[in-house]
Amino acid sequence: xxxxxxxxxxxxxxxxxxxxxxxxxxxxxxxxxxxxxxxxxxxxxxxxxxxxxxxxxxxxxxxxxxxxxxxxxxxxxxxxxxxxxxxxxxxxxxxxxxxxxxxxxxxxxxxxxxxxxxxxxxxxxxxxxxxxxxxxxxxxxxxxxxxxxxxxxxxxxxxxxxxxxxxxxxxxxxxxxxxxxxxxxxxxxxxxxxxxxxxxxxxxxxxxxxxxxxxxxxxxxxxxxxxxxxxxxxxxxxxxxxxxxxxxxxxxxxxxxxxxxxxxxxxxxxxxxxxxxxxxxxxxxxxxxxxxxxxxxxxxxxxxxxxxxxxxxxxxxxxxxxxxxxxxxxxxxxxxxxxxxxxxxxxxxxxxxxxxxxxxxxxxxxxxxxxxxxxxxxxxxxxxxxxxxxxxxxxxxxxxxxxxxxxxxxxxxxxxxxxxxxxxxxxxxxxxxxxxxxxxxxxxxxxxxxxxxxxxxxxxxxxxxxxxxxxxxxxxxxxxxxxxxxxxxxxxxxxxxxxxxxxxxxxxxxxxxxxxxxxxxxxxxxxxxxxxxxxxxxxxxxxxxxxxxxxxxxxxxxxxxxxxxxxxx
Length: 569
Hints:
The chain is α/β, with parallel strands linked by helices.
């Protein structure tokens, strides 16, 4: 890394500090220190519950990061090389504090820090892992598509800092729409992407190959990647020390090669990218400051009041809509109860009749093997019919969601268009809210097959072994009739709950995006106004002096950015 580039980023931090943009000054200083330390970030990203934390644990050779059966990771966690094992945490607006590695879960997990209520800004783990010795930092990110909105936002906010990515995928589907959108954003800023098809131990060889072909085709056709690096691995097997290597060694070699042969280039890119992002944001803050100084205070106050009113109108509209959504949710529940009852009334007798017929042609013809065949047939019949009902019911659920959001779209666009037509430049770029076309949240549905209920004791096993075939078939007809009914009831309830969750979470995301954008615009304008008012209170000379100071900072920023652009070209 050239010292001149680090010096430029430090100069940028200095300009930001002089401008009062302390948050940007801090970002620039941290970027400069990262470049001095020679650290580059390889972020582990993907849908929630793809096994990202488990995969990183397997790469590190020990269970450092918390894992679980529910969405676990709530905070971005950086793992870097260090001679001494340890961890540290920084809260928002706070300093770094050393913590015990064993207490990591208290800061980074959804269970112990739900939606990051503790306000954790950064977590860093130090390990003397050979994989990290060349400056590579592995980054554990919250899963996208989680029901916890803050988790998804934390991952998306980290995207500008990513130098390379290890994208963890599954096989059902291999790459979701949310994952593709994230990969597309990452690919726009870095070309080093590795893809891990995790949990390969749960797939047949033919399923693994099908998942690989599908993923490769999507990445090639839609992202233009040439021969994307896709590795079929199992973090669970690796951590358990099984002999099955799959493509684990190839993945480790690819990461090691990235660190050894591309590390310096990644640092160079990080420097250019980071400088550009911070400089652009600082330029916007300076422009807003200058505008607030040059306008009459009363005019700036009207602008801030208008923006605050806009946010207030949005909040009121969102509150009003809560009643509408609650009513829609209740109506949805009633409709699905009716649909579920109709489905069960039809599916249960049909499924039992199908099972009875297929059991009589199943192999083996009798004994414990026939019971095992009955279990597999029950799963096949139940899953096939449940899937058919999901296909039938989902359009109804989505149409109810779209209908509920349409009122908010009309209300939101009404006051946004009014502000945009006011002639104020700050309002010119306010977004137009588009009509929802379906759920914003991917289904998290998975079926339960209640396998613990299919076991039998020694006596049952012996009876299956010695009973005549017809006697066993009658006993199995009774048992699997009950088992199928139980499967249908349990899983139709899961389907309904999944739809309800997606309606609620889609609504939450929709409202959050409008709130967030308007609040950011209002806060930025209010900060500039407060500073301008302080100068106006000091008198005309103070205002003019501040205008000259801000203008000088703009010139220094323009010169600094221009010099860097010239050096790059």
